[in-house]
Design brief:
Chain A: Belongs to the binding-protein-dependent transport system permease family. Chain A: It comes from Angustibacter luteus. The complex is a heterodimer. By secondary structure, chain A is mainly alpha-helical. Helix content of chain A is 70%, strand content 0%. By secondary structure, chain B is of the alpha+beta class. Chain B is 24% helix and 20% strand. In chain B, a hairpin with a 6-residue loop joins strand 1 and strand 2. Classes of the chains: A mainly alpha, B alpha+beta. At the A-B interface, helix 2, helix 3, helix 7, helix 11 and helix 12 of A face helix 3, strand 9, helix 5 and helix 11 of B.
């Protein structure tokens, strides 16, 4: 289905899709390597010394401090540590957490899925609902729906997430007035429930309802407003007039022509946000005590737990780079113009 | 949480955390203080059925003495111990190079040799000691961990029916780690959890009087201080480093400032009344070691007196009303540092700045992240800071923080005084308890006079419990202390469902009379205790007996 430049005028040399993919992938690998280097040095300039933080009131002698540093490779010179770090990464290890004494890879694996569940489902829900709201507002610009939806999504957008979360906890978890407390106040699953059983899955869903609703409400405006404005841009275009002139019904004009073209910017944002899924949502994870990557990162900052920070930073950047790459590749597929 | 899983050789009493029998029924010391003999209880079993003997104890201590990682974490408690042996199944003998009065308090969890001998020196670094399905962690404590991982958010403990000190009255203790305090309190009100811990004083006030809930601020061995830069030096060369205010090297100058600190107001405003005014570095919770400052020496909030003392020490006011040093040069602005993570810290320093201004000393306040502040203190580029300490049941540790040995280590005031160091050494080896107490009090007096710290408050820990469901919480220290997170696990053995409280077997229930007829848990006697612990600081998991760096829960991150 893809032309490889045969049908285009010779003055513009279009690259083939294969070469386009190659260049993008190489670019991504380059960025990833850059991130590797940055992550190492970025966290080394943090104030604080893990041996002192973790050893307050416990390590009494300089020997104990030295022993701790030696055990975790903190007494090596910076270049040496960097080499160790690279070796580790290329052999698929991310080091050992200074605080929890477990391999960082295990920690990240454990914390990853709550975050992905929480932020992932919120992003998807917000995209779907936001886009629909945006289409309806844009198409009927100035209508009562348009005014009220714009006002309310903007209000939600400007509310602090944690405050919204606390309000929802008070209203739906503890119960207010006639409302019973329907949902758990926080946490990810009930104690003593096996998370892999059906009961456990339902239990987790029940625990995640409030946080997901909070995040979805907070993200809505981003999608609905972008969708609305891109649709408005399309409204004045000639092809819509043509479509109407052909006698198409309003719904068909909207679905087949206007929305299709207006979706591109929204897709870009979605793709980028999907990349940010693994960074976690720190405030919401805190309010609802969800053991996700966001919390892991902020808690590691205070020590500073270098290996954990590097691990989470790498994973988060890797995800963003991958999401970008995916978006680029899709664009190249759908829109040959970008391949120049 | 360790105390649930493992036993200590020697326990901490509820009254004042002094030593009392644990795994060891009794112990004696040789006349020269170099040999300690402990007699281990008969019939104690590990949770996998194997007997617990003196060999396990000796093995645990030897591992701490010999292993690199283990010693990093625990050796502090085995100061001067050269060997730990078990001549027979009921006897443990510790040999020392010099007397050590801190023994017998050894908060080292005793681990089973038959499990740990397969964990090599290298593997210990990351040995998790986590439960696998159907296989709880092998320990000897009143409960055993059946669910939970390092850094996790839920931990489940089941009771140990064969516990040597009697079967616990509740079947299960569950911990949930809350990352925010408000939701934890909401969960208590709703009844999702039965106990919350480390909640702010305002929350305690709001919970008091709610039906079925009892809340209080429990005395806890914490103190808050304003610390001074008494002269930072490079520990290698002995040269001065940093840019501390020279006047602060003068004990008289520092001591005079003590009269410019209104501890009552700090307690009222910074800690919402949930604290006691402080004076020395050993909190009143340890009333056996605490030195009571005589009324004629105590710091009263008296700006005129502070001024007189400054005048007498040569820091007179210049023409512009600002104080000068004895050479007549105006004093520089005093730089006060507070920790941004703690509103009370910033609050205290703002007050201090105001009071200093009233006695003619300019000051400014900077709030920063605590790890950054740690670096600033190490570099000596500060004049005063606000921080806190959690004091262990034996005073040795906090006293050592003011010795010259700790410069560049745990010391944050750069205090160094040969006379003090001599007293420290002496008390550490003083086997006569009364004499040692006397020395410890003298050391507090010296620190009070020389004022490297001005102790501002003894803070409390807020706790609240569903007293309609559970009763028989004995406070530690008794009376007035905390109900749950204590030294040792006694209270987990004594707490029980409210319906079966009775007279709590003579344990004076801290919660007073339980006349409430709240709804009972459906299962009657099979009540599972759900204890949610609202910790914003993080509880560190019992990750392998000799491994995890654990401070008491609430003290988790005092950094």
């Amino acid at each position: 289905m893809l032309d490889s430049g045969a049908a285009v005028p010779r003055t513009v040399r279009r690259r083939s899709y294969g070469r386009y993919v190659g260049s993008k992938v190489l670019g991504s690998i380059g960025s990833l390597f850059f991130v590797l280097v940055v992550s190492f040095f970025l966290f080394r300039v943090l104030p604080g010394d893990p041996a002192r933080t973790l050893g307050r009131e416990r390590f009494k002698t300089p020997e104990q401090m030295a022993a701790f540093r030696h055990t975790y490779g903190l007494d090596q010179s910076m270049p040496q540590q960097f080499v160790t770090f690279l070796k580790n990464v290329f052999s698929g290890q991310l080091g050992v957490s200074l605080r929890y004494r477990v391999p960082v890879a295990d920690l990240i694996q454990e914390r990853m899925w709550p975050t992905v569940l929480l932020v992932g489902s919120s992003t998807i829900l917000a995209t779907v609902i936001g886009v629909r709201i945006g289409i309806r507002s844009g198409w009927n610009r100035g209508s009562r729906f348009d005014k009220s939806s714009t006002a309310s999504t903007l209000t939600l957008y400007s509310m602090p997430e944690w405050w919204l979360g606390l309000l929802l906890i008070a209203a739906f978890a503890v119960g207010m007035g006639p409302l019973p407390g329907l949902f758990p106040t926080s946490g990810l699953h009930s104690i003593g429930v096996d998370p892999s059983s059906l009961k456990g899955v339902l239990d987790t869903a029940w625990h995640l309802t409030l946080p997901v609703v909070t995040l979805t409400l907070a993200y809505l405006a981003e999608y609905s407003l972008i969708m609305r404005s891109s649709l408005l841009d399309e409204l004045g275009e000639d092809y819509l007039v043509t479509a109407r002139a052909k006698g198409l019904r309003d719904v068909q004009v909207r679905r087949r022509h206007a929305v299709r073209n207006a979706m591109l910017p929204t897709l870009t944002i979605s793709a980028l946000n999907i990349g940010f899924v693994v960074s976690g949502a720190i405030t919401i994870e805190t309010i609802f005590s969800i053991p996700g990557l966001g919390l892991l990162t902020t808690e590691a900052l205070t020590i500073p737990d270098f290996w954990v920070l590097q691990g989470t930073f790498l994973i988060a950047s890797g995800a963003v780079i991958a999401a970008n790459l995916a978006a680029n590749l899709l664009y190249g597929l759908f829109d040959p113009r970008v391949r120049t | 949480m360790w105390a649930l899983t493992y036993d200590y050789l020697v326990n901490y009493s509820m009254k004042d955390m002094s030593p009392e029998p644990g795994l060891a029924k009794s112990w004696e010391t040789s006349a020269d203080g170099l040999t300690w003999t402990f007699h281990v209880r008969d019939g104690v079993k590990w949770s996998d059925g194997q007997p617990l003997t003196a060999a396990d104890v000796a093995y645990t201590y030897t591992r701490v003495l010999k292993g690199e990682t283990e010693s990093t974490n625990w050796a502090t408690y085995l100061g001067s111990v050269t060997s730990a042996t078990a001549p027979d199944a009921q006897t443990v003998v510790l040999k020392l190079s010099q007397p050590n009065a801190v023994l017998p308090l050894l908060p080292i969890p005793i681990v089973p040799e038959h499990i740990w001998k397969s964990v090599s020196e290298k593997a210990v670094k990351t040995y998790p000691a986590e439960p696998k399905p159907g296989q709880p962690v092998v320990g000897s404590g009143p409960f055993r961990l059946v669910e939970g991982t390092a850094g996790g958010s839920t931990f489940r403990f089941e009771k140990n029916p064969d516990y040597w000190n009697g079967t616990p009255h509740v079947d299960e203790v569950d911990y949930r780690v809350f990352k925010a305090k408000d939701p934890a309190v909401q969960a208590l009100i709703k009844g999702e959890v039965d106990f919350v811990e480390d909640i702010p004083p305002l929350q305690v006030k709001s919970l008091q009087g709610k039906p079925g809930i009892t809340a209080h601020s429990g005395i806890s061995p914490l103190f808050e201080e304003i610390g001074f830069n008494t002269g930072a030096i490079d520990t290698e060369s002995g040269k001065a480093i940093g840019d501390g205010m020279p006047a602060l090297k003068d004990p008289k100058f520092r001591h005079a400032l003590g009269y410019a600190v209104d501890t009552k107001r700090i307690v009222q405003n910074a800690y919402q009344g949930a604290a006691l005014p402080g004076d020395t570095i050993i909190p009143t919770a340890y009333d056996n070691y605490h030195w009571d400052v005589p009324a004629d020496q105590a710091f009263t909030f008296d700006l005129a007196k502070a001024g007189e003392q400054l005048d007498a020490a040569g820091y007179k006011k210049g023409a512009d009303g600002q104080r000068t040093d004895p050479q007549g040069k105006p004093l520089t602005t005093m730089r006060l540092f507070a920790r941004s993570s703690d509103p009370a810290s910033v609050n205290t320093m703002d007050f201090f700045k105001e009071w200093l201004g009233q006695i003619g000393i300019k000051a400014d306040v900077t709030a920063m992240d605590s790890s950054k502040l740690g670096d600033v203190i190490l570099s000596g580029e500060y004049d005063a800071f606000q921080w806190d300490w959690y004091v262990e049941p034996d005073p040795d540790s906090i006293l050592s923080d003011f010795t010259c040995d700790q410069l560049g280590g745990s010391s944050d005031s750069w205090y160094c005084n040969k006379e003090y160091d001599a007293m420290y050494k002496q008390q550490n080896g003083e086997m006569d308890h009364a004499k040692r107490v006397d020395l410890v009090k003298k050391m507090q007096e010296l620190l009070f006079q020389e004022s490297p710290y001005i102790v501002t408050a003894y803070t409390t820990i807020g706790e609240a419990v569903r007293s309609d469901r559970f009763a028989c919480f004995q406070p530690q220290p008794d009376p007035g202390g905390v109900w749950l997170i204590q030294y040792g696990a006694h209270n987990y053995s004594s707490l029980r469902p409210a319906s079966e409280a009775g007279d709590c077997d003579g344990v004076t229930s801290a919660l007073g009379a339980n006349a409430s007829s709240g709804e009972e848990d459906a299962a009657g006697t099979n009540t599972a205790v759900w204890i949610g612990i609202g910790v914003v600081v993080v509880l560190l998991l019992v990750g392998g007996g000799v491994l995890a760096l654990r401070r008491r829960g609430t003290e988790g991150e005092r950094e």
